[in-house]
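Look over this one:
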Amino acid sequence: MLLKPNRSQIECRLTGQYGVTSSDRQGLVEYCVHRTGDLKSRLDELHQHLSDEEKERAAKFRLEIYQNTYIASHGLLREILAEKLGTAPGEIEIQEGKYKKPNISGNQWYFNISHTRDHFALAFSPEQPVGIDIEQPDRKVDPGPVMKTVFSD
């Protein structure tokens, strides 16, 4: 089962890596991976999609690359969700659910977002919760706090 490409999927294909996976066991999952610099010309437009809370959070980043990655990732997330839900990007109310997983109350689409330095990844599924993670290969991460959050005792 493949989805008919829409504008946001084409945007993912043009500026980043895009894919759709499907299997009887896992269900349908769409994902895209971007380099922030590839969306630099759209940052003002993507910034307009953000909620006031997201704009405030973006403004707190001290380094421009992190601020731009936050704006690009959250703005494009809203743009893609708006297409899927038939609404405007700024009208979407994204909440934090259990384990800080983003969601939209009463929404039939599951999604997730991850960003690091100058890249970000987005995942979407109409059928099941999804998760995605992207990390810089040279970043040193202490697995202890993550293990406490993800694994049970």
User: Anything to note?
Assistant: DSSP finds five helices and six strands in the chain. Confidence is low (pLDDT under 50) at residues 1-11. The longest helix spans residues 64-85. The first strand starts at residue 16 and ends at 21.
